[in-house]
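note to self: dont lose this again. the chain is below, predicted strucutre after it. 375 aa total, dont forget to put it in the shared folder this time
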Amino acid sequence: MKQLLALLSIGLSTTFCYAETLDFYIGCVGSGDGSGIFRSTLDTETGKVSTPERAASLKRASFLHLSPDRKQLLSTCKLDTQERADGGMALFSIAEDGSLTQTGQASTHGSGSCHVNFDATGKIALAANYGLGGVASAAVGSDGSLTTVSYFEQTGSGPHEKRQRGSHAHSIYAGPENNYAYSADLGTDSVFIYKMDTASANLTPAGEAKTPPGAGPRHLKFSTDKTHVYVLNELNTTISVFERIADGQLKKVQDLYTLPVESKNDGITCSEIVVHPSGQLVFAANRDTTRGGGDTIAAFRVAADNRLTFLGVTPTGVSIPRTITLSPKGDWLIVCGQHSQALNVFAVDAETGKLTQTGEPIPCPRPMCVVFLKE
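---
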């Protein structure tokens, strides 16, 4: 009997240790009470997501990023101003119970702030403005304040008559060594490069890398070995792979589609790209702007030289996947269905890249972005 109880105890203990509930935040842009930052949990054994609950009220919380120590949350926001340059970023402290308290806010000196990013120290906040086409940096104070330090209007245009009449900075990221920042600009077919001073939070223009004409770079991610950059191009549904070379510069080595070539059409655009923690897989989201049900997630195999091979696509089960997010271990993927107003969860096969939907989509007011509290 004692042996049986001991075995049962071990089994229960093993099950308890394996199962885990992960907290995550959702940036939402719904109307009324559907606007702000929401909070939910993911059961890592079943993939079940709890009903999202609002954690903070905020206008235009379309993108979120957590500080390296996971104690602060940075969000895009809309400032209460009549000026055209209404873009902003807001900073929240995270309590032990996961509740949020806003501690700072700063102007991004543009309209339509659409992306934010912390540097590796957590002392610099970066932001991109889609509307007026520029990027900003702010110093993060020890008291949780935000003070804008630098702002640059990016210039240029592209061949797309409606979407590339001028700059549309869509994202900005601190580089792996934390000395350069990279901004994907949809309107100019460029990745703008900035030297980043970690002491002052100041940015200085340091170069530019070009994607194919009309590509429309939107977001980017670094390879796990930090030697390459995967740039997701919204307008022509491609990924441009760049090698990182001296002085923060980029050298393009590959372009490939995020769709089977035979199924490519003008109604599909790209939205988000993620790299699996193993470094062996990359996923990208395709949005069907015609609402025709062609929303998919593309999977790619990463070769030893960091070039990509297209594996195939999986339907998202929701309309207009604004972003996709992998859980910290890479075993789950959450899709933000902006038009469907729902989240969808997929189990990830780390060997093959196969995605399997775990259940029905979870209602959520216009979800735009998900970030997990735990790394």
